[in-house]
Amino acid sequence: MRHPKALYAIAAVLLTVPGGLAFAAGAGPSDAQIAHIAYTAGDLDIKAAELALEKSQSKTVRAFADDMVRDHKAVNDKALALVKKLNVSPEDNDTSKSLVKDADEKRAHLATLSGAAFDKAYVENEVAYHKAVNGALETTLIPSSDNGELKSLLETGLKIFQGHLKHAEHLAGSLK
Amino acid sequence: MRASGFSVLSFVLVALAHVASAKAGETIVVKITDLAFVPAEVSARVGDTIEWVNVDFIDHTATASNGAWDLALPAGSRGRLVVKQAGVLGYFCRVHPNMTGTLNVNEK
To answer: What is this model's ipTM?
Structure first.
């Protein structure tokens, strides 16, 4: 794999329970933490897409980035409306912090690239990132969520992001 | 002259009936809900209208696999297409290509 293991940060962090975070076996993250992780993951993908819209000249890469911005904003708007309705304050946590740190590093690296090299690296990162996020949703975030509406939104989110993964894989194939 | 006038009238009526039947294609509704085309497979005849109704909160498309058409279906919108050719035609959503559907189009 060309991708640093940091790309799999979400799954890794959730599995290794760093910093004594209360994700002990059977407990899992709280709904307030899950909401924060899911929102953060979406927000980071929007930031990556915004960088792609600044840098890429490729029509297909730009169209993909537009799709990412639009869909992740729509999902995050739903998430914000839901936490407001449920009167839940999203709670920052080690998983969210790790996601932000890794994504910031990745974006800084992408910013040094241009042209076809940027397009390839951005799209390959989108494949890896969506795989990691979808894995975390399936194995941890969805099973751990207590509130039915939050669980349902995460399930819909997973279907949307599985679509993004397939789209990104097609695109990565076409850029080779 | 009278007979001839009657013939013309008959011809016009037959022609109008023909136009009416040609226009009377059915509308087949495909709902887009929770990232799926429902039903995923529909049968239609040439001249029928397929109407996609997107009830999801995100935008989708109905895009022919052979590139013949590409319909934008923003969240909460509906879009229509009159089918013009017989055959089996697959389609998908460009944004979420795991969403797929099939139109089985028969001759009129």
So the answer is: 0.84
